[in-house]
Amino acid sequence: MDLILWRHAEAEEGGNDMARELTAKGRKQAVAVGGWLDSRLAKEARVLVSPAARAQQTAAGLGRRFETLEAIRPGADPADLMHAVGWPESAGTVLVVGHQPTLGLVAAMLLFGETRPFTLKKGGLVWLTNRTRRGDQQVVLKAAMTPELV
Predict the structure, then answer these.
(1) What is d(CA 66, CA 14) in angstroms, rounded to the nearest whole number?
(2) What proportion of the chain, given as a percentage, has pLDDT over 90?
(3) Confidence band, pLDDT 50/70/90 cuts, at residue 55
(4) By residue range, what is the domain housing residue 14?
(5) How many domains does the chain have?
(6) Which of 67, 143, 80, 141 is nearest to 111 (CA)?
(7) CA gap 103, 81 in Å, rounded
(8) Which of 77, 82, 74, 39 is nearest to 54 (CA)?
(9) What string of DSSP letters covers 55-110?
(10) Which residue, among 118, 129, 140, has the nearest Cα to 7 in the 3D structure?
């Protein structure tokens, strides 16, 4: 399974957290990273998105259909997110568009085997995969990307 954790792009500050929208810079970040992803993602990849406006707008930068999932909302429990995406049993690729600190905690859990602070930059992503080598389950970092590197 490939799991891509994409943090929403730059958003407005303050106000109703679920209604905060992307800034002009954030919209550019979403389109840039979305274009980078679209050229690399399998057509059948699942795209799961937080119900927050900023995550929905970030996912729109990909230009693909997506599914809104409460388990990815701001403040979501990392274990709930892992269960929702089916890590590591699911086949294919799952792209999650969500929030800090949840995405960073999931990345740290998978990469380091423990929950610890790990920050994904706004609009940035980590692309992980799992494999079995000599009977051992392994997590492999396939890519780490920020909007500035696209």
Answers:
(1) 26
(2) 91
(3) very high
(4) 2-149
(5) 1
(6) 141
(7) 9
(8) 74
(9) HHHHHHTTTS--EE-GGGSTT--HHHHHHHHTTTT--SEEEEEE-TTHHHHHHHHH
(10) 118
Tokens 């679920």 belong to which residue? 18
Cis peptide before 88 (omega within 30 of 0): yes
Rounded CA separation 95/129 (Å): 12
- Burial letters 53-62, b for 16+ CB under 10 A, else e: bbbbbbbbbb
In degrees and rounded to multiples of 5, residue 2 shows phi and psi of: -100, 135
Whose tokens are 């799961």? That residue is 48
Q: How far apart are CA 87 and CA 3, in angstroms?
A: 8
For residue 29, the model assigns a pLDDT of 98
Which CATH number goes with the domain that contains 130? 3.40.50.1240
Would strands 136-145 and 125-133 be described as parallel, antiparallel, or unpaired?
antiparallel
